[in-house]
Design brief:
Elements lengths: L3 H5 L14 H7 L2 H12 L1 H10 L1 H64 L3 H29 L10 H30 L9
Helix pairs in contact: 3-4, 6-7
C-alpha cells in the first residue's frame, strides 16, 4: 500500500519503512535490515544526509539554487562593469542639477531686472514721463520769456539788444512752445484713450 510519505517521496520506496496506516507496528515485523535502515537514518546524520541528498526533489532544489547563484553572479559582474560609467553619469547628473539650480536662482534676478526695465516702458510710466516733460517744457518757455522781459529797458529808452535779440528770442520761444503744445496734445489724447498700445 502506498502511504502519503511514499507518494510524496517515491525515492524512499526501496527502504520500505512506511507502507500502511499500521506502519509503526509493521516496521518491527519487517526484516531486520529494513528496521536497521530506518534506525540508521534516524541515528546516523551522515547516512541521513546521503539519503536526503539522493532525493530527486532535493537535487532539483540544489540545482535551482546553483543556477540562481550563477545568474546572480553574472548580474553582479555585469553591474560591476557598469559601475564606473554609472558613477560618472551620477557625477555629471549632479553637476547638471547644480548648474540648473544656479541658473534658476540667476533667472529670478534677471526676471526682476527685466520687470524693472519693462516697467520704465509701460504705458502708465510713459504717460507720467510725458506729463512731466510737458510741465518742464512749459516752465522752460516761461523762464525764457521772463528772462527776456527782465533784460528789456524801461519804456521810452533805447533797446540794447536790438532787433536781432528780439528775433532770436521769438525763434527760440516759438520752438519751445511748439514742443510744449505737441506734448500737451499727445497727453490729452492719451488720457482720453485715443492712443492704443500694442501688446507685444
Amino acid at each position: 500500500m502506498t502511504t502519503p510519505l511514499l507518494a510524496e517521496f517515491p525515492e524512499l520506496s526501496h527502504l520500505s519503512f512506511v507502507n500502511s496506516s499500521e506502519s509503526c507496528i509493521q516496521i518491527f515485523k519487517e526484516p531486520k535490515s529494513r528496521r536497521e535502515d530506518l534506525e540508521d537514518i534516524l541515528t546516523d546524520p551522515l547516512y541521513f544526509q546521503t539519503i536526503f541528498h539522493s532525493l530527486d526533489r532535493v537535487r532539483k532544489l540544489y540545482q535551482g539554487q546553483t543556477e540562481l547563484g550563477m545568474a546572480n553572479e553574472s548580474i553582479a559582474q555585469h553591474n560591476l562593469r557598469l559601475q564606473e560609467s554609472l558613477y560618472q553619469l551620477r557625477s555629471e547628473t549632479q553637476e547638471a542639477f547644480d548648474e540648473a539650480k544656479s541658473l534658476e536662482a540667476r533667472w529670478k534676478d534677471i526676471e526682476k531686472e527685466q520687470k524693472e526695465v519693462y516697467q520704465r516702458f509701460s504705458p502708465q510710466f510713459l504717460l507720467m514721463r510725458l506729463k512731466h516733460s510737458t510741465i518742464a517744457q512749459d516752465d522752460a518757455s516761461e523762464a525764457l520769456a521772463s528772462s527776456f522781459i527782465q533784460q528789456q529797458p524801461p519804456a521810452g529808452t533805447s533797446t540794447p539788444t536790438g532787433g536781432a535779440g528780439v528775433d532770436e528770442f521769438v525763434k527760440e520761444f516759438k520752438e519751445l512752445r511748439q514742443v510744449y503744445h505737441k506734448r500737451a496734445i499727445w497727453g490729452e489724447r492719451w488720457s482720453d484713450g485715443k492712443i492704443a498700445w500694442r501688446g507685444d
